[in-house]
Each structure stands twice: as structure tokens, then as C-alpha cells.
Write a structure and sequence with these properties.
Length: 377
């Protein structure tokens, strides 16, 4: 088995930063009234700016595959070109279409060469699982290099017109035309962007990072769905897919909007996260003392103190001085968040040889968690 190193890293955040006052203008106002939920969500998540792949008039500037193509081209130069890539592994929770796969569409935009591709579906963990596929492929010698990416383009899923049919339907029923909080919750948290890394079996580049190990855990066997799109959650917890609804109902129920069961989220995301973190620590025989930089992907600063407290309660407290976050500046970029966070740390000038980095990515879709442990070479 070969050692595997992150030898290059890049990020692509489209257009200019969007502040809290501008976001509703870009995404659109639903039913002609400013959102009341927006203030509540923003107060809790503490996000100040985020990025949208739409312009100030709401016109799309990039689709998801184009965001990924852009970040991969930023990863490359004359020394390592897109034609040198042997494996392309991409993860996202917001593909542009059901078929073809996301990685296939990215490959189409790159127009580089015949190569292996891998598409990972899911939510935030999809970016890490794309990384793990590349990591294992390079480690086993299947390929000499791999480019792994995480990306999201959720802004178009959150635009007002996605919800207009539902609002009109509620009016017809003489019901209050206000969206349920679980549909508005994510609208004020999510951001667009992409991140990518190059994996190679030698420690090249200015700040190569050796991947020591990666771990993943799922609690879907005991937890019902929490975050979802393309279906509707029934009172008994069952997720009914869009394909089992008549086409005329799709818009009336905003079936293709992302939704979050906030009750399930608050009750379980931190407890399961720390439980899985303990499993990763025990399996790899490390403790918080063996971590110099802790990069947790959190969707909201509302969970920051709670995560710290839960780690303390379970006996694996992570000192605050080891935490590295950038949520306030870039928003929740889902599968790309951990790439964007790591890119900022690598380019911060803080890292020195021997530093150890722990990546911690939760996914609330049905409660999955992925981890990576890196050493600066």
C-alpha cells in the first residue's frame, strides 16, 4: 500500500459575497412578504456572507458541474494539467440533474481525456466520500493520482419561484400561505461553491498533507430521515419519494426543495456526532491531545457551543484554541465546506511540519459522519 498525500488544494466561490440584507432580494420574496423566519435563522447561524451562483438579478451564472470544473482548473497549471488527471471523484448533494451523474457532467465540461470517474451522492458527507474513493484508489496503486471535489449549487433550489406553486395552493385551500419552517430553515443557511484536492503518492507541493486515515459512520439503521429533497416526509416518519406522487402535486408540495426536520436535527446531530468521533478515536488510538487543528463542518454557529459541551460530556473535550472555522464568511457550502475550510487553513501560513489536522463532517440527511486525519509534511 502506498502513502497518500494532498499535494494541491483549491476553492471556487462564485461571484461576490452576498450579505444578509441582499440575500432575500437575490433569492426572491415569497408571496410578496419578507420572511420572518430569515431573522431567526440568521440570528442563530451567525452567517454574515455567503456566495450564490446567480447574479444580483437572480440569473444563473454557473451550474453545479461548472462550479466543479472551475475549481479543478484552478487546481491545475502547466506542470499538472487537466489531461494528467487519472481519476475524477466528485461529491454533491445538489446535482444539476438525476442523470447523467454529476462527475460525468464535470468530465464533459473539462474536455480533457479518457479517465475513470466516480460520482458520490448524499449530503455533506458526499464530498468526504469522494475524497475517500480517491484516497483508496491511490493507496492501492489503482491510479497514480486522483482529483477529488465537493460542490454545491443550492441557490436555484431556494429561489422564490420554487415555492410559488405551494403558496398559491395554500391560498386555494384558504390556508395561511406561509411555508413551514422546515422548508425555510435551509434557505437562509446554504451557499454555493466548490473545493478540490489533488492526491498523489509522493509529498509534493509547498504544504503536502499526508492522509493518515479516513473513517465513516452511519446511524440510518436507527434514525429516520432528517434532511431531504425530492420527496415528502409523512407523519409516521416514512419518506415518500417524488416518483410516487402525481406530477401535478410536485409543485404544490415543493417536493424538490431541500427541507430539514429541525426537531430531529437538534435532538440528535451532536450526540451521534460525538459518539462516532469517539469510535474514530478508539479505532485509530488517538485522543484530542493528538490534534493540532480541528476542522468541524457545522451548519450553524448555534451548534458550536453544543458540540463543545457534548464532547466535554463524553470525555473528549477539544480545546477552543484548536478549532478552525470559516462559516461566518462563506456560509454552509455542504459537500464543499470541508474543502473550502481546509484550503483556507493551508493558505493561512499557520501550518508547520508535523501539525496534525482532524476533519469532522456530519450529514443530517439520515445522520452520517466522516472523518479524516492529516499530517503536515
Amino acid at each position: 500500500m502506498k502513502d497518500v498525500y494532498i499535494t494541491r488544494i483549491s476553492k471556487f466561490l462564485p461571484n461576490r459575497p452576498v450579505d444578509n440584507d441582499l440575500m432575500e432580494k437575490i433569492l426572491g420574496i415569497i408571496n410578496g412578504k419578507a420572511s420572518k423566519a430569515r431573522r431567526i435563522v440568521l440570528r442563530n447561524n451567525q452567517i454574515k456572507t455567503r456566495y450564490y451562483a446567480v447574479d444580483d438579478e437572480g440569473q444563473v451564472t454557473h451550474n453545479n458541474a461548472q462550479l466543479t470544473k472551475e475549481v479543478i482548473e484552478l487546481l491545475c497549471d502547466e506542470e499538472f494539467t487537466t489531461k494528467d488527471i487519472e481519476l475524477l471523484s466528485c461529491g454533491t448533494s445538489s446535482p444539476d440533474q438525476i442523470l447523467p451523474s454529476h462527475a460525468s457532467m464535470v468530465h464533459g465540461f473539462l474536455k480533457n481525456r479518457n479517465m475513470e470517474i466516480n460520482s458520490v451522492s448524499g449530503a455533506c458527507c458526499s464530498g468526504m466520500n469522494a475524497l475517500k474513493y480517491g484516497y483508496l484508489s491511490v493507496m492501492t496503486g489503482q491510479v497514480a493520482n486522483a482529483v477529488c471535489a465537493g460542490s454545491e449549487r443550492t441557490s436555484s433550489w431556494m429561489k422564490a419561484d420554487v415555492f410559488e406553486n405551494e403558496v398559491e395552493y395554500l391560498k386555494e385551500l384558504e390556508d395561511s400561505p406561509i411555508l413551514a419552517f422546515n422548508k425555510e430553515f435551509l434557505r437562509w443557511m446554504l451557499s454555493d461553491g466548490s473545493g478540490a484536492v489533488l492526491l498523489q503518492p509522493e509529498p509534493k507541493g509547498e504544504t503536502p498533507l499526508k492522509i493518515e486515515w479516513m473513517e465513516g459512520y452511519s446511524y440510518a439503521h436507527e434514525m429516520e430521515t432528517c434532511m431531504y429533497a425530492g420527496g415528502d416526509k409523512l407523519p409516521d416518519g416514512h419518506l415518500k419519494p417524488w416518483s410516487e406522487y402525481p406530477a401535478e402535486v410536485w409543485g404544490k408540495k415543493s417536493l424538490f426543495a431541500m427541507k430539514q426536520d429541525t426537531r430531529l436535527l437538534g435532538d440528535n446531530i451532536l450526540v451521534k456526532g460525538v459518539d462516532s468521533l469517539k469510535l474514530a478515536y478508539e479505532k485509530n488510538n488517538i485522543t484530542p491531545d493528538d490534534v493540532d487543528y480541528y476542522l468541524p463542518h457545522i451548519s450553524s454557529y448555534y451548534f458550536k457551543q453544543g458540540l463543545y459541551d457534548e464532547m466535554k460530556n463524553q470525555g473528549i473535550e477539544m480545546p477552543w484554541e484548536k478549532w478552525f472555522l470559516n462559516l461566518q464568511k462563506v456560509g454552509n457550502v455542504g459537500a464543499a465546506s470541508i474543502y473550502v475550510m481546509l484550503e483556507e487553513l493551508v493558505n493561512s501560513g499557520k501550518l508547520k511540519k508535523g501539525d496534525r489536522i482532524l476533519l469532522h463532517v456530519p450529514e443530517s440527511a439520515r445522520f452520517s459522519y466522516t472523518y479524516a486525519y492529516l499530517t503536515v509534511c
